[in-house]
Specification:
3 helices
Length: 90
């Protein structure tokens, strides 16, 4: 998925045949699956904490991510958009 940010573009890139690029409309953060995951992480695990330093932030983010991926279906739930169902994955 590409959100059109300038740093997500390249003049020359080879996309493998088994990869489908999905371009999101401009300024559509609510459609970006990664943004939905970050929202869940912040709301559920990261916001109620005050981190002492950068290392604690990294540790907290890694812990939150590990807790999310340990929950079956958790990542699929906030990222299940109808427009993604039409993309072939095989």
């Amino acid at each position: 998925m590409l959100d059109g940010a300038g740093w997500h573009t390249a003049d020359a890139i080879t996309v493998p045949a088994n990869i489908s690029l999905i371009f999101l409309p401009p300024y559509a953060l609510e459609l970006n699956s990664v943004e939905r995951i970050w929202l869940y992480l912040r709301k559920r695990f990261l916001s109620p904490q005050l981190f002492s330093d950068l290392s604690a932030i990294f540790d907290g983010c890694c812990d939150a991510w590990n807790r999310v991926v340990a929950e079956p279906g958790r990542i699929a739930s906030p990222t299940d958009y109808p427009y993604l169902r039409s993309v072939r994955t095989s």
